[in-house]
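Form 7-S
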Amino acid sequence: MVLNPYFQQGSKSEQNLIQDLINEQLRMYGVEVHYLPRKYMDEKTVIREVVSSKFDDAYPLEAYLDTYDGYGENPVILSKFGIEQQNEITLTISRERWDTYIEPLMQNESNVKLFTRPKEGDLIYFPLGDRLFEIKYVEHEKPFYQLQKNYIYELRCELFRYEDEVIDTGIDAIDDELTGDDIDGTSEDGLSTILGPSMTFTMVGTAATAWAYTSGIVTTGGIYKISINNRGGGYIYAPNVGFGSAPIVGPTSSYSVTGIGSVGEMISVQACNKNIATNEKSVQSIDIVNPGYGYTISPGIAVTAVASGPGSGFAGTAYVADGTLGVVTVTNAGSGFTTDRATVTFNTPLAFTNTGVGTTAVGVAIISPSGTVSEVRYTNAGSGYTTGDLPISVTIADPESTGSGDFIFNETVTGGTSSATARVRTWNSTTNILEVASVVGTFVVGETLTGSSSGATHDLRLIDKDPLDDGFADNAQIETSADAILDFTEANPFGTP
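Output:
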């Protein structure tokens, strides 16, 4: 034996004595922190990249603050990413306390990568600064094998930067770190106070029937329908639509009628969004808002692309008839609509009922993003109506569904069809806008979302995957500039569908 046999370097009793002294010092001069193990909920299968994680456990633990002189000399810096806080602390915890207390609690937990020692990526809640710190490095060999054993773990931590993780430990002092002083997760202006990427859902609120009426009968020469002869192609945006003027009506020119105006006022064009390639988009339909009057022959139709986008080739025919219906006015916008367009029905003209002459008007209600009726348009303004048909019955289809209750901050919402889940950030019951994060799966428009804690149920109307404009992102500007460089004029040589 090389070492002196009378000094037992590896004596168990000596090692236990040192460990007990360290434990005693930590309890006397340490700080009570909470250890939050990271649980990996979803990760890529190729390079094992973590997609989502959560922290739902917090273990109280005594720790000595080695960096007693503060967070360092330069805790706040101005970088190309903005103002960054680089607060750092170093904590010392007992190895024995970990082995006998935390390890037995963690070893049966699912989705925990390592439980035999503290792990990089886990969090430490520091109560004195009311901050969360992320463990960046664990030193497990300091001091270096005193009496042939190590007794502590040294945790080098940086201020935690939230990136859409779920923090739900059940301890208010920790969980409210997501929102600061705003426990509900919203600031005074209604914006989310949580950082990280999110998705915005427009939900269906409480359903209410919409009502509308017509302004009267158009007796002579109204445009009652438009047929499409060539859908054209290359339209990125809905093009402008114009019609030829109606002839002069009445004894003098002061009674002239200009007919129907531009698309922004009278006509709506629906560009095809079903094709993948943007240069294959074509005109699918033209809705009539005001049939006009005074037409004796079918006017010409001019369809031109807007200044910000290409498109050409459309051709169509406008049909003129007597006894078309006039502009429809919405008296009650209703609520709770999930589709973009709702069916509108009108009563059949008496002339058609008695003699088979005339056509029944057909309409469609345009639904706003909030689920209300914004306007009523004609796909066919009808013909053969007379004053004997007054009043005209305008019936808008009932809303598809209704919602109830209010979602609660940080609760889980689950899609009834897709089984996708997400965490609630904000919920506005007035606009029916739901902001969520930590999305797992793919939500489907039209399905019912149910809150796990509140029990609230609302149908999903629209999904906005793009984050809200933060005032710094240049995505829209970059795309606009790219559109001016790239050539989008090439069309399908075999024609457009």
